[in-house]
C-alpha cells in the first residue's frame, strides 16, 4: 500500500496567520491518465470529514479560497492563507491513484 | 440536495454481527459508487473499500476481507455494511461516503458508532 506521511502532526497557529501542511507519498501519485489524484480532507471536531481539494489543487464547491493545494509526484502541500477559528480540526491528505486509497495520519490544527 | 443518512449507534457483544445502513437521496443512486471508511476512537481515517452500485460488485481493502461485507438494496437507494464475528478492535465510527477522485464534491454520512464490548 502507498504510505502517506504528513508533517507536522500538530500545528498551533495564530488567527489570521498562514499555515502549511506537508504530505509525502511512498510512490509517485501520477496515474496512467496523467492526472495526480491527491486529495485533502478536513474533519472538524465531532463532524464527518469533508474534502477541500481534489487532484492536487482543485477546490471543492464551497471551499473558501484561503485554502490552496500544490505539489507534484510525491510531495504535496496544503496551505491556509489566513487561519480562521472555523479551520480548527484535523486535516488528512489522501491518495486516490493506487488501490487501496490511503490517508495520511492527520494534522491537528489548533489556535494558539 | 444529496444526503447520506446512516443508521444509529450499535452496542454489540464480541462474536455478534452488525449491519449498518446508508440511505442515499438527492441523486441517482446507481450513478456513483459507495465507499466505506472506518475511524477508530481518537484515530485517523481508514478506507475500507467500495461497492459498485450498478453491479453490486464490492472491492475490499486489505484488512477488510472475510468478516466485512458490502451490499445494496437499490430499490430503496441504500448501501449496507455488515460485520460478522465482531471483535473489540472493530469498535469505531463507520462512514459511508460518495467520493470520486476525478470529480468535485463529496458527500458523507453522519457516521455510525459501533461499540463492541462484553
From TrEMBL, chain A:
InterPro entries: Ig-like_dom, Ig-like_dom_sf, Ig-like_fold, Ig_sub, Ig_V-set, IgV_Light_Chain. Residues 1-93 form the Ig-like domain. It holds the Pfam family V-set. One of its GO terms (biological process) is adaptive immune response. It comes from the Eukaryota. One of its GO terms (cellular component) is extracellular region. Keywords: Adaptive immunity, Immunity, Immunoglobulin, Immunoglobulin domain. This is IGH + IGL c18_light_IGKV2-30_IGKJ1. It comes from Homo sapiens (Human).
Amino acid at each position: 500500500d502507498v504510505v502517506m506521511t504528513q508533517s507536522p502532526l500538530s500545528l498551533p497557529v495564530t488567527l489570521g496567520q498562514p499555515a502549511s501542511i506537508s504530505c509525502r507519498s511512498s510512490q509517485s501519485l501520477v496515474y496512467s491518465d496523467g492526472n495526480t489524484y491527491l486529495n485533502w480532507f478536513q474533519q472538524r471536531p465531532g463532524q464527518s470529514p469533508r474534502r477541500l481539494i481534489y487532484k492536487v489543487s482543485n477546490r471543492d464547491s464551497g471551499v473558501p479560497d484561503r485554502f490552496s493545494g500544490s505539489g507534484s509526484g510525491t510531495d504535496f502541500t496544503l496551505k491556509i492563507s489566513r487561519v480562521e477559528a472555523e479551520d480548527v480540526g484535523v486535516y488528512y491528505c489522501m491518495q486516490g491513484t493506487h488501490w487501496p486509497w490511503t490517508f495520511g495520519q492527520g494534522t491537528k490544527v489548533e489556535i494558539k | 440536495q444529496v444526503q447520506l443518512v446512516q443508521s444509529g449507534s450499535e452496542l454489540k457483544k464480541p462474536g455478534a454481527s452488525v449491519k449498518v445502513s446508508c440511505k442515499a437521496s438527492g441523486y441517482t443512486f446507481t450513478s456513483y459508487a459507495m465507499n466505506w471508511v472506518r475511524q477508530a476512537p481518537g484515530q485517523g481515517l481508514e478506507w475500507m473499500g467500495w461497492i459498485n452500485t450498478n453491479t453490486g460488485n464490492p472491492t475490499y481493502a486489505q484488512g477488510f476481507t472475510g468478516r466485512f461485507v458490502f451490499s445494496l438494496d437499490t430499490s430503496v437507494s441504500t448501501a449496507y455494511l455488515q460485520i460478522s464475528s465482531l471483535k473489540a478492535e472493530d469498535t469505531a465510527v463507520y462512514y459511508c461516503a460518495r467520493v470520486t477522485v476525478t470529480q468535485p464534491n463529496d458527500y458523507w454520512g453522519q457516521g455510525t458508532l459501533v461499540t463492541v464490548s462484553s
